[in-house]
Amino acid sequence: MVHLLVFCFMVQVLPIESAWGAGAPVLVNGSRSTMSAAASSIRIAFGSCNKAREDVVNPLWDDIIDSHPDVWVWGGDNVYVDKHLIDILPISPRIKGTTTTILQEYEFMRNNSEYQRFVDTGVAIIGTWDDHDYGLNDAGKDLDIKHETRTATLDFLEHKQPSTLVHPERRTRDDGIYTSHTFTTKDNRSVGVVLLDSRWNKDPTTILGAQQWSWLADTLQEHQDAGVLVTFILSSIQVLADFRPIGEYWGRHPAERNRLISTIARFNHSIVLLSGDVHLAAINQATCSEVAKEDPWTLLEVTSSGMTHSWEKPFWRKYIMLASHWLLPWNHNTDWALPLNFGVLDVDLETEQLRVQVLGDGGVFMIDKTFDLKSLRPNGSTARDSDVECKPILGVPAHASVLVQCLLFLGMCAAPPLLVASVVFYAAMRVRKFWVNRLKRRSSLDLETLKKHV
Fold it and tell me: Which of 118, 367, 354, 68 is nearest to 232 (CA)?
């Protein structure tokens, strides 16, 4: 609540409009993977936020297997190696993972029969991490167990995977586990996946670190030169999300978000953002262009999060999130879903269409959208960071409306506990009054009895 009050005050001072930027794969050498047939489409499924514990069930593996992805992407928080200080209180502080908890979590996940069945289908499995599988909630570069978690994470991600999906430099590089893959059909049509590391170098001044920034630009250039139709950039935390009182997202590092947007804007092949972390599914969009130029393109971000837990339950969490979507100015957000979910991305290489689906337990469709990849293609801008402007797809909210929306949200969040407190207070006063009156009557009767005896 304090975060939101500060935010509501700041938006009255700072300008909102500021610019910011078909079968299992047969793998060949390098990070390029060739599909087993001259398929007209490539299907990528992804998910995040998966607790690997005996008392937690992931009901989605059957549905993921039935979706028959060519590639599965772990989006972070693939297991939870840190724990709550008081396990029965989900809002209690978290304590750092240990070597024991790290090994236990990944061993449990590898031995999970449903996950084993999924791995044995031969699907290509790649991924990155976020804070909870890195070692500690919101942790960054100073975490002292990150080398241990790196080894355990890569052992898990590379389990039963062919050598062409294993990149040894991820184990030894001194600035993180970021990497990229290109999946290509036999008729030489390609889709790229870039996996960022938002943990190893994160501090108050940067998310990626200098070396990873340079690598990202070089990798996107390689994808463009190779004729990749679309590159998916996976960030474990959301990029376009804004107006959030709690949690991590790129908006808390505006200079870094500017830099990411302007880096993407330099290229002219389709680029789509993927993310996890937030325990819900969402589609966020922004309209981007160089300042003073009429050549806009759409920056799309697809979020899938919550494979074992989400904002759907318990009710008080669902209530808060519904209030957030109804009242806060989340003008990037066009679609969202709260139940357990995973994402499916179908790239049609013939028509150059991208179908985005978010599925839940039982294969229920919660989001189903189709995008023309040409509309997701940056214009190859050479502008500096500050010259690329992105605006929410639903428009930039006015300052006054932001303040009103924030206050309404605070009111909706405060109303239930205040109501409960009022009822409890009223009941306590009624009980107090009952006992006071009873004592008074008893005292009066005792006094009358005493007078009679006298």
Answer: 354
